[in-house]
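Progress report, Aim 2. The chain analyzed during this reporting quarter is listed below.
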Amino acid sequence: LNTKLGDKQDLEKVVPEIPIVGEVPYIKDRETRQFVDLHDRSILAESFRILGTNINYMLLDADLSEGRVIYVTSTIKGEGKTFAAVNLSLAYASLDNRVLLIGADLRNPQLHTYMGVSKNTEGLADYLTGKSDDWQRSLMEGPLQAPNYNVLIAGAVPHNSAELLANKRFKKLLDEAKKSFDYIIIDTAPTILV
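Predicted structure tokens for the chain:
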């Protein structure tokens, strides 16, 4: 009657054809849910570095002349998308990569809580709606003041979020970002809601 996945082996039994790129430990303490510094050697930090390395292995065919775009999603709210996106981006930044973390969950943004700012702070939604012509003006330094690490939070929640992400401005943003960053990590909305 147990329908939960307890470990990697449970998942491999159900879907053996899908590769597992990493395992992240369960963290109860909210204070240690992200890297403490760029040289962090905790189990959490190392698990995300391994995840980043394994993702790179899967992206071997990607064009290395431009930055790589990685979407982080889940099925429903509360499964750890933002947690994974923040820590994966910090793992890449800790290896001296130029990283942009984008909060693209325009329905229920959470990235602002990691940044310690109001969710109405200017961000992606302002650029997509045309309130701002320059998305780079909304960039902020990421946690830990890592060099070459920037964050673009979602901004104020718009009423037409799905349409905004489908417009040409988002593609333009990504095309421009690929020229300036090695990795663009995108924290997206849960797929079942969309």
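Residues 73 and 188 are 5 Å apart (CA to CA). The first strand starts at residue 68 and ends at 72. These observations will guide the mutagenesis work planned for the next reporting period.
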